């Protein structure tokens, strides 16, 4: 596991897909390499990224020298304007190892949401009332997205 993203800047992240390049040191062979990390996935803009997310291929590091694969623990925001789902993932380990960074990120995320609602709230009540769900595992994020995507299957399963 690699912990990253403490210095990511969440500004402007609510609207579109954004990524950053970070230098990651391979936990196995110590080789340094630049890796692209996603900060935000906009599902409407980049539906293929949602498939990659479901395949657990987002924010994964593969060492070009020794082939070691590791999950990169970095925050990720998922935003889907169609299903009106916004989910922010924070690595649970941040709560222990970087609580100040977590608080700062969380506050900025809330401020971003407010600014977003000020800009687009006139479009719909659902935007004005939208909240960001915070999760601490990627599996939970994926499950929430799938759950929100299949309302029809859900109601059929009940009847
Ligand atoms: Zn390596």
Describe the structure.
The protein has 159 residues and is α/β, with parallel strands linked by helices. The chain has one domain. It has 6 helices and 8 strands; from the N terminus they run E-E-E-H-E-E-E-E-H-H-H-E-H-H. The longest helix has 22 residues, at 99-120. The protein has a 5-stranded mixed beta sheet, with helices on one face. A 3-stranded mixed beta sheet has the order 1-5-4, with no helix packed on it. The site of zinc ion has 8 residues, from loops. Residues 26, 28-29, 31, 63, 65-66, 68 line the site of zinc ion.
SS-based structural class? alpha/beta
Numbering strands along the chain, what is their spatial order in the largest sheet?
2-3-6-7-8
Shape: globular
Number of strands: 8
Give the low-pLDDT segments.
none
- Small-molecule binders: zinc ion
Sheet-strand content, in percent, reads 25-35%
What's the number of domains? 1
Helix coverage percent of residues? Answer: 25-40%
Order of helices and strands: EEEHEEEEHHHEHH
Brief account:
Residues 24-145 form the CpXC domain. The protein is an alpha/beta fold and 159 residues long.
Highlighted features:
159 residues; single chain; binds zinc ion; CpXC domain-containing protein; globular; CpXC_dom; 5-stranded mixed β-sheet
What is the topological layout?
Layout lengths: L1 E2 L14 E8 L6 E11 L4 H8 L5 E3 L6 E5 L2 E5 L4 E5 L3 H5 L1 H22 L4 H4 L4 E3 L2 H12 L1 H8 L1
Parallel strand pairs: 1-5, 3-6, 7-8
Antiparallel strand pairs: 2-3, 4-5, 6-7
The structure holds zinc ion (ZN).
The site of zinc ion (ZN) has 8 residues, from loops.
Organism: Desulfosarcina widdelii
InterPro entries: CpXC_dom
Protein name: CpXC domain-containing protein
């Amino acid at each position: 596991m690699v912990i990253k993203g403490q210095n990511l800047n969440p500004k402007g992240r609510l609207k579109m897909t954004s990524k950053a390049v970070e230098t990651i040191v391979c936990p196995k062979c110590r080789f340094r390499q630049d890796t692209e990390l996603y900060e935000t996935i906009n599902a409407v803009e980049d539906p293929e990224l949602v498939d990659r997310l479901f395949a657990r291929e987002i924010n994964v590091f593969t060492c070009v020298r020794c082939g070691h694969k590791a999950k990169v623990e970095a925050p990720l925001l998922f935003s889907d304007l169609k299903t009106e789902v916004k989910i922010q993932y924070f690595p649970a380990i941040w709560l222990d190892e970087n609580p100040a960074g977590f608080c700062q990120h969380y506050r900025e995320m809330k401020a971003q949401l407010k600014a977003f609602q000020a800009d687009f709230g006139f479009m719909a009540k659902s935007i004005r009332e939208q909240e960001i769900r915070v999760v601490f595992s990627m599996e939970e994020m994926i499950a929430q997205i799938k759950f929100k995507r299949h309302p029809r299957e859900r109601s059929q399963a009940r009847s």
